[in-house]
Amino acid sequence: MPFASLEGVYSVRRIQARFKFCECVPGVKQIILLLLVLVALASNAAAIDDGKPAENFSDNHYDFRIVQGWLAMEDGVRLSVTYYLPVARSPDEKFPVILEMHPYRKDDDFYIGDYDYYTFFARHGYATARVDVRGTGSSEGETVPHEYSPIELSDGEEVIAQLARLQWCNGNVGMLGISWSANNAIMLALRNPPALKAVIVAHMSDDLFHDHAQYIDGIKQVNEYEAYMEGYNIMPRSPDYSLDEDYFRNRFDAYPWFLTNLKHQREDSFWKNESARYRYDELHIPVYILGGLLDGYRDSVTRVLEGSKGPVRAEIGPYNHAFPDYGVPGPNYEWRYDALRWFDRWLNGAKNGIEDEPCFKVFVRAGNPPDPNMITTPGEWRYEDWPINRTKWTKFYPSAGGVLLTDSSLATVDGLKFQSGSGIEASGLRFWWGESSENVASSDKSALVYDYTVLNQSLEIIGYPEVTLHTATDASLANWIVRLEDVQPDGNVTLVTGAAQCGAQRNSSRDPEALVQGTFYNLSFKLHFTTWTFQPGHKIRVAITNAQFPSFWPTPYAMTMKLKIGERGTSIKLPVVPFQERPVPKHLPPEVTQMPPDAVSLPGGGDPIYTLVSRNSDTGMVCVEQKSEHYFTVKDRSYYQMDWRYYETNERNPADTRFIGTSEGKVTMKDRSVMHRTTTDMQSSVENFHVVITRRIYENDTLLREKVFDEVIPRDFQ
After folding, report:
1. Domain CATH code at residue 287
2. Residues 209, 73 within the same domain
3. What tens digit of pLDDT does each residue of 422-469 get?
């Protein structure tokens, strides 16, 4: 899934990501972006007009050409495909194909980011095929009913088979993807289509309920991605943007994914059937997987290492939901030559020995202060085994007086009143675990906080901290959130990792059960994967609470949590890794981004432009507001995209929580303009979610049609 403006926009915003540090200085980012755009356009002016490469780095690099085409499915629906093809040097030369398939509109904004990646592989002798999922982008057909539907995956199998039969293909297909296209690459690998020989995936979610964008840690989240996709899905087919009856029937009137997802509030077969986490014994195709410590999907990296039956190469870096050459923050490196070696081994049969090299590369963070504008993360890359055999699990016990001890103390009980609007700083900009780099000290004011004594030597952890809470509440539904944090000598606090547990899912996320009020439960769960070094002079902190707004939709009841600490009570185990000399990987610096000659991401806007937070002590209302804007041109079309999100909750009546998300996009052509505007409005009560989704489509600024979906969906232990 997850996100530049949203999950799907991450791979487009490479230029903005590289200059994120400039956002704190007014005007600097816009100036740098404009200069970069001008340089890129000048250096690439004739890149594809005559079929020649943007740059010949050596005599071994291929010229390439870009070709538009169609792939007809068994039911006659045609999927739109863009090929980036190396120019053969002999009549009988054939190439492997690298496929990426997702719904993020290859002929619109994604073309800007796609160009850099696909031309890289084309210049190195790989044909690449970028396909729009049916009913999205330029492809025909009705919009698929939901993410990773059987229709999408069956189409994927047919696409792979057809690509392998093309006259210029050597019969071998690989898949490359980030987020959505990483997820369906693994799902297709589990189906073992004969021509699919290897995959490379970044930021893959292998657990579609517990570790995906809609129900993070099994708890309902409403985020920018869902609101954005509501608008994205009703955009007409590019490049003509025809507003005919086929468009209204197959896209504008299609049932919203948002409502479909909300009708599955527990881990039923809807989520589990395609979740790779439960099927790794079926995975035999070679997998190269990349993750980021600031990404919500990072846990899948080690699970692939542990579970796959085929060759695996795995990397976890310090960045967010992006590839290593442009992820924020760095250090960045050029990883695509390793990708070429991976594909050379499995698609061309090269005996390069890559499968015999160390298979797990991880960035170990040195322990930085909170800094949302950090350019480079302090720390080091190293090769490690997984699991790390020298790990020394060290247990800490929250104890009376807000201290963290290594020995259990006398038992006591701490209490905390539920504040549904707390935890905003810990939520970060994307509202998923890891990406918050803010000072979270303010969030800790509404949590139970336990600090270990000031360290006199460094303590390094790699892995999944494990938590046991001995806890009760006076409500039948509650969530628990645990954060592991680093308290700096100046009092600022950095989030290291965390996780949440829905109390109703304590035994099963498929068959949740209400809590018995006043009954103490042992809740045991893992925090999300992390690396960190707690430095001398710092403190280890554990913060425990029932809310992290707006990451998690608040439970509906006012309540007080009780936490039994001391003897037989709450504990946290840290995977402490003693020092050992380890091999250090060598990295190349990122190559210069290749910009297309006929498209550009324009200066201005941002993601987000702003985030506003307000609290009203008289009414108990807490509000969060965000806005993002983007401008770009592709060929003779100009685009504007705006997304606005608003969250509110009433701490006196937490059932009264609301989200409003507006997505607006406009494409202007020579003779007309087309604009969509969608609003997703979700409100909760004790028993229900009330959702109103409004769609509007305009031509030349005149409203052509409006459609409203208005549904009340019962809360199901959420």
Report:
1. 3.40.50.1820
2. yes
3. 999 999 777 888 777 899 999 999 999 999 999 999 999 999 999 999
373 and 405 share a domain? no
Burial class (CB in 10 A: 0-12, 13-18, 19+), 4: buried
What's the CATH code of the domain at 429? 2.60.120.260
Beta bridge partners of 541: 451, 485
Same domain, 350 and 408: no
- DSSP structural state of residue 330: B
Of 559, 576, 593, which closes a domain?
576
Short-list 314, 361, 380, 394, CA closest to 577: 394
Diameter over CA atoms, the chain:
81
- Whether 626 is covered by a domain: the verdict is no
Query: Is 508 in the same domain as 542?
Result: yes
Question: According to the model, what pLDDT value does residue 244 have?
Answer: 97
90: CB partners within 8 A, 6+ apart: none
CB 35 within 8 A of CB 29: no
Determine the straight-line distance between the first and last CA of the chain, rounded to whole angstroms: 22
SS3 state at 549: coil
Does any domain span residue 624?
A: no
What is the pLDDT at residue 569? 87
pLDDT tens-digit map of 251-295: 999 999 999 999 999 999 999 999 999 999 999 999 999 999 999
Chain-centre distance for alpha carbon 657: 25
- The confidence score (pLDDT) of residue 125 equals 97
Residue 411 counted as domain residue: yes
- Residue 432: both structure tokens together: 């998923």
Question: In the beta sheet, which residues pair with residue 561?
Answer: 416, 473
Q: Helix 336-347 and helix 110-123: axis angle, to 10°?
A: 60
In this prediction, residue 389 carries a pLDDT of 97
3-class DSSP state for residue 352?
Answer: coil
Per-residue model confidence (pLDDT) at position 401: 96
- Range(s) of the domain holding residue 149: 7-46+58-218+267-383
- Tell me whether residue 606 is in a domain: no
User: Both tokens of residue 659?
Assistant: 């989200």
Give residue 14's pLDDT.
Answer: 40
Quick one: pLDDT at residue 712? 98
Tell me, yes or no, whether 430 and 538 share the same domain.
yes
One domain, residues 379 and 398 = no
Q: Within 13 Å and on the Cβ side, how many CA atoms surround 125?
A: 18
Do 436 and 313 share a structural domain?
no
- Sequence letter at residue 712: V
Instruction: State residue 408's pLDDT score.
Output: 86
Q: Which residues pair with 611 in a beta bridge?
A: 626
Q: What is the pTM of this model?
A: 0.92
The number of domains in the chain is 2
Return the CA Rg of the chain.
Answer: 25
